[in-house]
Amino acid sequence: IRFCIFLIRSCKFASRFCDFVIRFCDLVIKFCDFDIRLCDFVIRFYDFVIRLCDFLIGFCDFIIRFYDFVIRFSDFVIRFCVFHIRVCNFVSRYCEFVSNCCKFVSRFCSFVIRFCDFYVRFCNLVLGYSF
C-alpha cells in the first residue's frame, strides 16, 4: 500500500513536473516564435538599409558623373570662348591693318589729286591759261 501511495504521489509529481515542462516549453516556443519574427523584421530592415545604401551609392555616382560632365562641358565652353576671343583679336588686328592701309591709300590718293591739281595749274600757268 505504501508503495502504491508512493507511486501515486510520484505520478502526481511527475504529472505536475511534466505539466511544468510543457508550459515551459510552450513559453520557450512562444519566445522562439517572437525571436523568429524579430529576426525576420531585423533581416527585412537590414535588407531595406542595404537597398537604400545601394541606391544612395548609385545616386552619388550619378551626381559625380553629372558634375564631371558639367566640369568637362564648362572646360569646353571656356576653350571655345578663348578660341573665339583669339579669332576676334586676330580679326580686329586685321581690320585695323586694313583700315590703316585704306587711310594710307586715301592720303596717297589725296596727295595725287593735289599734285595733279597743282600740276594742271602749273601747266596752265606756264601755257598762259588762267582760271
Report the order of strands and helices.
H
What structural category do the secondary elements indicate?
mainly alpha
Number of helices in the DSSP assignment = 1
Give the amount of beta strand, in percent.
under 5%
Taking the sheet with the most strands, its summary is: none
Cα radius of gyration in angstroms = 55 Å
Low-confidence stretches: none
In helices, the fraction of residues equals over 70%
Mean of residue pLDDT values: 91
Name the shape in a single word.
rod-shaped
Could you tell me the number of beta strands? 0
Throw out a few tags for this protein.
single chain, 131 residues, mainly alpha, 1 helix, 0% strand
Describe this structure in words.
The chain contains one helix and no strands. The protein has 131 residues and is mainly alpha-helical.
List the helices and strands and how they pair.
Blueprint lengths: L1 H126 L4
What would a concise description of this structure say?
By secondary structure, this protein is mostly helical. The chain has one helix spanning 2-127.
